[in-house]
Structure formats: structure tokens, C-alpha cells
Amino acid sequence: MASDVEANAAAEEKNWRRKGKHDKEKPWDEDPTIDRWTVEKFDPSWNECGLLEVSSFSTLFPQYREKYLQDAWPIVKGALKEFGVSCELNLVEGSMTVSTTRKTRDPYIILKARDLIKLLSRSVPAPQAIKVLNDEMNCDIIKIGSIIRNKERFVKRRERLLGPNLSTLKAIEILTGCYILVQGNTVAAMGTFKGLKQVRRVVEDCIKNIKHPVYHIKELLIKRELAKNPALATESWDRFLPNFKKKNVKQKKPNTKEKKQYTPFPPPQQPSKIDLELESGEYFMSDKKKSAKKWQDKLDKQSEKSEEKKRKREATFVPPKVRMSSCIFSVGFSFACIVTKSCYGFQENTQSTKTTNDNNGIADIAKSLKKKAKKLRNSEAQENVKIESYVASNEESHSKKKHKSSSM
């Protein structure tokens, strides 16, 4: 029995070795001095023979970048020449092309050169774009034009990403350690992979209206402070991060359509155009008469519209209605004032002996005016009486009384 157990154990050990014969422990696996995340700089001695095939990439650029690229092309050409990459600027087609040569040793440098011409076409300055050729630097071009259809909303959200005096953009650049350029329908970013991931999240959340960039900046600031504490390296940071909830979410209105009563019978068939013409008799009319009738209908509609417009214009010139009683009272009051003034002037010129007679005459005139005003107020038939005739009658009565007083 013991021999059988030993034999089975030996067989299992043999099978295990056969299955994982390449997964043996190496002496450098547990070496603490080795940093496995570092990117070693490429050494040309690693690839002395060069590349077997020619690889090339080309991209178009907008017309407004033509002059700048023409001026900055010698700088770009000199930077790519160090890595053995050739470049060509075609102003006729409006394109930039990069390709490998026999002197190219680094096989990944052609992808870096492709990123360089992409950044140049997206309005990144040449000195900044050349930095992408370094191994530590990477780039990401985020397309934001197709996320939202409404042009006004897109412009507002893009301005929200920039902030007043580019303050929001600068804050994101400092916290993520990336270079960001917002141009047209794209956002070009340059930096480390970790920073580019954060930038993409901030930009997409802003354009999709998920979260404001200011809230992202607050989160990044908190994470920056928490990263300084080594005790929290293995713990979750969710309890320290703020939870922002949208308050102005538009809720969908429930469909409140009234259900019609079910009837097994179909609705009655509507008359066709020919049926309507047969009923009115137009079907049997000639083309000339039909066109004349259409023209007449058009003229009738035009005349109706013109009359409506004329009525609206004339409505502004209609005077407001005024009550006749108030008008008569005002006229009577003004006339009484005129009479009193004339009487006072007449009293100064006459002798002192006739003062009493004049005062009696004025009192009589005032009484007569009051009586007439009362009569006019009570009678609705006197609305169209002319004011001139009313004043004239008062003047005649006044002259008669004056004549009587002078004869006495």
C-alpha cells in the first residue's frame, strides 16, 4: 500500500512539472531593487539591421494651418531626422506624410510620428507637439463634435470646459499633468496614460452634461491629498470623495391620452377628391373655368385679408367714448368762471351806486346756469347738443339782464 501511494505522488509530481515546466521561479522575480514599471530608453544596438518593410502614415490638415506648418516644417523635419523618419508636407493636397527609412531602428517611433502629425493638424504648436516623440509622453485626441447635436448647447458646454479666462482648463492641466488644447470639434491632450484617462473622463462628462468640470477638479484635489498618506494606499477612498447628485433632472411627462371607446365597426369612408368635385359640379367644368374659379377664390381671400388689416389700422384712430354729463359740467363751470371775471371787471368800471344791482345779476346768472346743467344731466336726448349754441344762449341772457339793470 505504501509503495502504491508513493508511486501516485511521484506521478502527480511528474505531471505537474510537465504542465508548468516554463513557470519556474526565476532569481529576479522577488528582487526588490527592480522596478518593472519603468520604460527603458530604446538602444539602437537592439536592432542593428533596421526594419524590413517601409511603414507610412498621412493625415490631412485644414487650410488655415497651411502657413504655420510651412514656417514650422524645418523644426519638425529636424526632430524626426534624429530617429531616422522622413516627413513630407504636400500643400497641393493639404496633407502631411511620415514614413520609415533604412536608418530607422526603433519600430515604435513611426507610431509616435503619426501622433505628431495628428497634433500638428489639430492646431498644437510645433515645439509642444515634438515632445510626443519622447517615450514618457503620450497623446489622445478626443472627438466631442458628434456627442451632441444642438449647436448652441455644444458651444455652451465647450465654454464650460474652458471656464472664465481659461481658469478651469488650467486647473485640469495642473491636476492631471497634461497639456490640453480645445480646438473646434476636438480636444487634444498630451501627458501620461493615467493623466490622459482622467482628462478624457472630465471632457466627456462635461459635454454629455453628466458632471460639471468643477466637481471633477474637487475630486482630483481630494485624491491628490489622499495619495500623500501611505496608510490609505490599500483602502477605498469612496468615503472621502463627495457624491454630487443632479437636482434639475427633467422628468418625462406621463402619457395621458384618453382611450377611445372600442367599436367593432370601422369608421365611415371619407369622400375622395373626385367625389367632392362631382358633388360641387367642378368635375364637369372645363380647365379654363376651373382656373377662373381658383383665381376668383384667391381674390376673395385677398380682399378679406386686406379688409381685416384695414380694420386693425383704423381701430387705432377711433377716439374713446366720453360721458356727456361730465363734459357739460366742465363747460358750465368754465363759462361761470368767465362770467364772474367779466362781472368783476365791469364792477370796477361802474359807479359804487350800482354794485348791489350787479351782485344780484351775477347770482341770477349762476342760478340759471345750475338749473340748465341739471336739465341737461337729466335729459339723455340732449347728448348731441352743440356747445357753441349753449354758450350763445347764455351770452344773450346775460346781455338782457345787464340792459335791465342799467335802465333801473
In words, what does this structure look like?
This protein has helices at about 1-20, 65-80, 110-120, 125-130, 150-160, 165-175, 195-205, 215-225, 275-280, 285-315, 325-350, 355-380, 385-405, and strands spanning about 55-60, 85-90, 95-100, 140-145, 180-185, 185-190. With about 400 residues, it is mainly α. Helix 6 runs parallel beside helix 8, helix 11 runs antiparallel to helix 12 (about 355-380) and helix 12 packs antiparallel against helix 13 (about 385-405). The termini are far apart. The relative contact order is 0.04.
Q: How far apart lie the N and C ends?
A: 173 Å
Please tell me what the overall shape is.
elongated
User: Low-confidence spans: pLDDT under 50, at least 5 residues?
Assistant: 324-354
Strand proportion, as a percent range, falls in: 5-15%
Helix content: 40-55%
SSE order:
HEHEEHHEHHEEHHHHHHH
Overall mean confidence score, pLDDT? 80
Total E-strand runs: 6
Helix tally equals 13
Rg estimate, integer Å: 50 Å
Which class of secondary structure composition applies to the elements? mainly alpha
Output the strand order for the largest sheet: 1-3-2
Largest sheet: 3 strands, antiparallel
